Amino acid sequence: MPVTPFHLGPGMLLKSLAHDRFSFLTFGISQVIMDLQPLFAMLTGIGPIHGSTHTYAGATLIAPIAAVISKLLVGPMLVYWNRNFEGPDWLGQFYTQVSAPVLLGSAFIGTYSHIFLDSMMHADMQPFFPLDYANSLLSLTDAYSLHIYCFALGIVGIIVYGALRFVRGK
Hints:
Blueprint (H helix, E strand, L loop, with lengths): L7 H11 L5 H11 L1 H9 L11 H29 L4 H4 L7 H20 L23 H26 L2
């Protein structure tokens, strides 16, 4: 399924641990961009479902694009959130200036983690193409367990993130 929310679980845990050195929004944007090609293939029947975008080489090319798109979107999104959030300050106020290294790093983590997670459950992937045509990551775990792991990481990430923001007061 394109644009699966399960990919966000590991990103939420990373956000809780890295705080302002990681952009969860950029991570999420990179996840969506990664699945545009599979979505196109599913809707049109043109091309493989997991083609060149679902390789580490493709992810390497997509990450900088995701970082640039994020640069345009993340700041305004956070400004809007900060102005309109009606909950406690410790939960709702975010820094609106995200540095280029954070954007780029978060985009690379997003695209590479996407390949890693998808490689474990999609037989049509060739994550190491053009170096290797095999998918040596396939079946490291079953799809159900992978979804549970990602969901659990997201829940833990939300709890840790909320607790740390509450303790820090921001």
